[in-house]
Amino acid sequence: MLDVKFIRENLGLVEKSAKEKGYKVNVSEAIELDDKRKAVLSEVETLRAKRNEVASKMKGGKPSPELIAEGKKIKEELAGLEKDLEATETELDSVLKQIPNVIFDDVPLGGEECSVEVKKWGENHEKGIDHLDFATKRDWLDFERGAKVAGAKFYYLKGDLALIENALLQYGLSKVLEHGFTYMTVPDMVSSRVLEGCGFNPRSSEQSDEYYIEGEDLAMIATAEMPLTGYHMDEILDEDQLPLFYAGYSACFRKEAGAYGKYTRGLFRVHQFNKLEMYVFCLPEQSKEIHEKILAIEEEIWQGLGIPYHVINIAAGDLGAPAAKKYDMEYWSPVNQKYQEITSCSNCTDFQARACNIRVRKKDGSLEYVHTLNGTAIPLARALVVLIENYATEDGKFMVPEVLRPYLGGKAEL
User: Fold this and answer.
1) Using CA atoms, how far apart are residues 66 and 140, in angstroms rounded to an integer?
2) Which of 100, 210, 352, 363 is most buried, with most CB under 10 Å away?
3) Is 344 a residue of the active site?
4) Number of other CB atoms surrounding residue 405 within 10 Å
């Protein structure tokens, strides 16, 4: 959520950024509602002062009928104005939540096709093995029974493929721990306040990508970013504590509504998967450097696995509401002969922290909102797709990447 004062002082910038992101919002409405809020607040404060003055006069003796009547009138007027103030603040808050974060100057403008390649690593392979055919043939993966139990796009991992997933987690975890992250398991459900604070704006179960718990103010998480964002909600952190580096492991649940025009075969796009996520709370002046650090860790992980990839600076029209800038890493799929997303990392500046009321007390005693960043270490289901495409052989073997062997009993092939 943006600060209304910032919006007021940078109205053109906020409107332009929202337009570039593809959001149709009435930014001026926030200014109008804030003006209304200030006017009503002024009246409320004036009446509160009068109420206190009358209350003071009533002390020490029997108040006159005129004073009692005046006190009653003020009380009634104040109740009405306080109700108006609460309604205006609620309406302003709702409007502010619809306005997306402002993009950085180096974010490319345009839609998805305008994203810019900023680096590339590895040699693209010409041939690969289809992961679904390979894993099904080896009885490592069962979508049929997953659908019987939970519906389409749910699945069972079996035997060696389940062990490979565990090895991937252990490998990814070892990398993030090397870089000073604190490992956390997180709740698989969050409240609507946390969802909204993350920049998700759910209106109903049908209109969003989240699964909602009927009769409860809870939704299943789509990423560990959600509960990690809420971890320090309504807290004031000390400057000396920052930056805070967390690595959250969780199941992720997504309807993937409207996503089926993209590549969806097998494990690439499913309704439930496990993921290791990096998350950082930091000082505003630290966030750009830390964004590059998160990207470097992602690259280190995938270079260790020997997977060719490129990094793209995501164009404004493909950015979500919270991100001021986002990098995607896309691996080269030898099966589809194209780059496909494997990780992302975003700098959300103070957008999430403002909505979740997460601040830092500076050494000079002042308070300001922290910056938050998130980045994927390993999305485990999709990582299995990548590994099979790159390490399965035509004679039905799987050659284990060297970095995973210590977590698979030293085996070089499965």
Assistant:
1) 85
2) 352
3) yes
4) 15
> Is position 201 within any domain?
yes
Please indicate, yes or no, if residue 56 is contained in any of the structural domains. Answer: yes
Helices (H), 179-286: 192-197, 225-230
Annotated catalytic residue, options 138, 269, 354, 359: 269
86 is catalytic: no
- CA–CA separation, 183 vs 326, rounded Å? 23
Task: Report the alpha-carbon distance of residue 279 to residue 153 in Å, rounded.
Answer: 28
Assigned token pair, 401? 């990447």
Q: Which of 174, 341, 361, 405 is flagged as catalytic?
A: 341
Radius of gyration of the chain (CA): 26
The pTM (predicted TM-score) of the whole model is 0.91
Is-catalytic flag, 254? Answer: yes
Mean pLDDT per 10-residue segment, the chain (414 residues): 92 93 90 93 90 82 82 88 92 91 95 95 92 96 96 95 98 98 97 90 55 93 96 97 97 76 79 97 98 98 98 95 96 95 97 97 96 98 97 95 97 96
One-letter identity of residue 135:
A
- 28 catalytic, yes or no? no
* Residue after which a domain boundary falls, among 98, 129, 164: 98
| CB of 389 closer than 8 Å to CB of 129 | yes
Contact (CB, 8 A) for 190 and 212:
no
